[in-house]
Amino acid sequence: MTDILEGAVYVVQDNIDTDQIIPAQYLNLVPTIPEEYEKLGSYALIGLPESLYPTRFIEPQQTKTKYTIVVAGRNFGCGSSREHAPIAMGASGVTAVIAESYARIFFRNCVATGELYPVEATTRLCNVLKTGQHVKIDLKQNKLTADGKTYDLKPLGEVKPVIDEGGIFNFARKNGLIPSAAKS
Q1: Considering 11, 16, 41, 164, which has the largest number of Cβ atoms within 10 A of its Cβ?
Q2: Beta carbons of 29 and 39 less than 8 angstroms apart
Q3: Cβ neighbours, 10 Å, residue 48
């Protein structure tokens, strides 16, 4: 169970779609194969245009990002309904995305996979915070703190325990909603 997340932020604007999060040519990678899961992380947010985002999210030849929290504007994760999008971000080391709003399917894929916390901001933080800035998120108090200033976040509610358990299947098994895998 996680209540406090801290790290450097990577700031993006509105309408970041799943093609920008993980371009289609990388969808042949299978997240359940450990080396392919790691490779997915190396391609997270690689589809962002360099003209708008000159600071790269992942350094070349790296699989992990130094930005563990993504701050976005409206409609984050729009586009096609690929569960690879939150998986790639989680594989890269992202623990949370703080956005004004989410495409419904991206939000649901975050919950289903348990890869990261999709938290909604009550303030347009993408216009306040800068890439590289250090923040602290308190998921219990629904607050984000940066440079001594505190901003309200919307509560995750009933989805937080599901993400805490690593996704819908782990949550369902732990709570007796589906049987655990048989042991041989």
Answers
A1: 16
A2: yes
A3: 18
Identity of the amino acid at 44: A
With the CA atoms of 180, 104, 69 and 139 taken in that order, what torsion angle do they form, in degrees rounded to the nearest 10? Answer: -70
- Spell out the residues 6+ positions from residue 177 whose beta carbon is closer than 8 angstroms to its own: 171
Q: Residues 113, 105, 40, CA angle at the centre, nearest 5°? A: 50
- Residues 58-114 have pLDDT tens digits of 998 899 999 999 999 999 999 987 889 999 999 999 999 999 999 999 999 999 999
Whole-prediction pTM:
0.92
Correct CATH for 4-174 of 3.30.830.10, 3.20.19.10, 3.30.70.330, 3.20.20.140: 3.20.19.10
Phi-psi region of 93 (alpha: psi -120 to 50; beta: other; left: phi over 0): left
